Amino acid sequence: MRAFFPRLLVSVGVLLLIMTLSFWMTRTAPGGPFDQAHRLNSAVEANLWLTYGMADDAIGLQGGRVAEVLASRGETLEEGRPILLLESGHTLKAPHEGRLIHVSFGVGDAMVEGATFAVIERPLWKQYLVAMKGYAVFDFGPSFQYPDRKVESLIAETFPVSMELGFWSLMIALFFGVGGGVLAGMNAGGWKDRMAMLMSALMVSCSTLILGPLLLLLFGVHLEWFEWGGWTTLGSRVLPAMTLGLVFAANIARMTRAGVVEAVEGHHVRTARAKGLAESRVILKHVLPGALIPLLGYLGPALAGLLCGSVVVERIFNIPGVSEYFVSGALNRDYPMVMGVVVLYSSLLIGFNLFLDVFHQWLDPRLKGQA
Amino acid sequence: MGPGVWFNVWLGILGMLALASVGAPWISQHVTGFHPNETHSHMAAMAPGVEDVPLEYRQYDGDPAVFDWIDADGSGWIECTVGTSGSSSTASCPELDVLPSRFRFFRFLFSDFDGGTDSSEMADGRLTLEEYPQNDQEIEPAYRGLNLSGSERFHGLDEDGNGWLDPSEVNRQTRAYRLRTAQLIAFDTDGDGKISRDEFPGAPRTATFLLGTDGQGRDLFTRMLFGARISLLVGLLATLISLLIGVSLGALSGYLGGAFDRGLMAIVNVLYGLPFLLVVILILVWFGRSMTHLFLALGAVQWLTICRVVRGQVLSIRQEEYVVAAEALGASPLRVIGVHVLRNVMGPVLAYGSLMVPAVMQEEAFLSYLGLGIQAPDPSWGTLLAEGVRRIEDSWWLIVYPAAVFVITVLALYVVGDGIRDRIDPRQSMERT
User: How high is the mean pLDDT of chain B?
Assistant: First the structure.
């Protein structure tokens, strides 16, 4: 357990890094609404800056009719710089330094006491803290594409579907992968081994992008065995989960086979056989535990691949998962949406890897003491 | 057959693919006849084997009968006037002006009449005599009086006499209507502004859509050629970029060691944990979508493995006596890296690099499929597969052919890459089995 805390620290650091990156991208990315190259209507822009916690309201302590506007939009103000001159002779000043984004009143307008008279950009460190606080509780603000919806609610709606797809795919990958690997490893060199490895080689070069459409064409369109398109019935889940699962089953099968071939030669297996144990018992109790440990190392990258693969699979089979928003967000420069998905996926992945590391150490006593 | 034979077979396949993609423009012009982006809108989503007259690369059949038919006044010339407006020259041949309207009629023949005007029958891509307009009253006023309707015309079009017309048949029979001034005027070799019987090239030939057409009536085969070209290019360039980054950083890291090494390896480990797709998409969103950025983005996520491999190699080479000797003789670190270290890591680098090409190609297909990579109308594996999936219910050829060739390409690259690695670095392959 000694090694756990450094790992945890690194994981948190990576997440912080990703969040910082996403903050920085949203603020400065070209083509976004905060891009100074194209200017929005002043009031609209002010609203946007307030919504994303990047600016502060300046509240007027006095009311009255405006005699003169002393600062213009876009100007960088120092603290206490007068912005409005009232007919009563009072001036309304900038509460802190920053760029002036919006002045709410013009000459001759009457303002009441306590009204917002200007919007001023927050200092960068304050913006950063506010954003980080938001990201930490999964608050990314409204999506650019759907301004009346928050990113986290859009993701929360679709994420369960993606999770379910991932779960079934992982089950299929483990079932076919471990099953095929054991079959191949126990018959190493035989025709079963060759068949399994040929299938595995084919699947690896296939990738989800090829396998998905071909399965869809054969079993969905042609034979009509399974429904497809959407995520409604049990039947409509078979093809997408198969597509995603089989590609990873190929890699798992290879690793399992290698592990089994090595384990079968172990003395403990020979002893077990010599004792007259049933072959199924030998495999389950004595071969598999040793053979499957290397697999744990693969599950981390596999999950990363699964997340990426699900983007394509969800699109092929028209599944209402997270990736739809992710891709449309990337295409339309919806930065909050892209960042939401990136942070979600990264934290998922980092958390899973952390868990695997700990689990691995617990399972394999040889690793204890190694950092 | 031993493994060496298979290696050679796949190497041959790969060579053919490379040749086809390098020669794609030539093949497009001289073999398939179609330009990859030319659309034949009336031939959209047609099964393999249909024919149409190419728009870009035309070949003519030299049939003199067509000349007599066009030369309506029997003067022995097709008179044209060549004028200049601004910087471009314009030509008009009045005798050709009757052709486009006739062609327009045949172009919409199937969409207007297949299945009957009252949709009493199924539109099946076959036009029977019953469906064919019997007289000019059934066709639009613009086409009347051009001798286009009636059973005599139908039988003239039905060259094989099987009782129905298919689009290829109609395209073949009406190809003379595709003669256009702009293309014909090029045959006016003596420059007198008139086309004589000797200069006349005949009617344009039809070419075959070998693997059918896509949803916009473009030739799938030609598009696959150009798609392979772009995808292989992306694969090679992105691999080169990542090799450049990976080898230089890996060599530096391994050679210098210390804080630089630790820092770089920490970064590598962090990047390893992120899903590659997210990183690439972030780069593409940030810098905008273009081909150059695609190379950079793919290269930027692929250098990690090579960096680790090179670092490991350098670490072991550093202990070798000749490197120690070079250092003792006062060679600068740059010289040691450049002369001794890099020369020795080239083998593994080449081996990993050749395996990286198919991986990058798959990633490119991924991104293009999502609309983030190569942009329409340029073909690549990803955009072709995306089109295939869109039309999977009615046009199987749009998914089956690109998918099959893509799998073969990737498999060939993997097998050859594996073979190269085995030859360069036999220890690796022994460890694997």
Answer: 81
